[in-house]
Amino acid sequence: MLDITIIAIGKIKEKSIASASAEYIKRLAPYAKLNLVELKPEPFNESTRSKAKTEESRRIIECLSKYKNSTVWLLTEKGKEFDSFGFAEFLQKETRPIVFVVAGSLGWSDSIVKNHKNHLSLSKLTMPHELARLVFFEQLYRAVTINLGKTYHY
Length: 154
What we know:
- By secondary structure, the chain is of the alpha/beta class.
- The protein has one domain: SPOUT methyltransferase, trefoil knot domain (Alpha/beta knot).
- Helices cover about 45% and strands about 25% of the residues.
- It contains five helices and five strands.
- It has a five-stranded parallel beta sheet.
- The longest helix is centred in the C-terminal third of the chain and has 20 residues.
């Protein structure tokens, strides 16, 4: 069974995205041990943007310290791209617990990007972090169904 933790800044506030995300999390439950860790976002304005990004990064780094035996992947538009079958194969080969990290609206600090070599891209396009989470949940479910031979992916 897959052991996946998703660390994200903030909760999903948009009701339709939250509802769709919850549906995919529910669908994944029989096939994966899924742990969702939502860290507090830092309020900011234009003058405190850099300080807020630093604080969110500190929270992510602190949280990641609990997952030393896991493979960590940052979700970023500059990361490795898979098609659905490639992502399914990647998940099937992974033997360690996996942690996927989604940044908040401010994106990634240079320190986190430099200290974590595994970067995964859902698309070269930049998307809101809430939407990225929904797309990621759907792709996780799609990969699991591909690996199980279920008729979700056509």
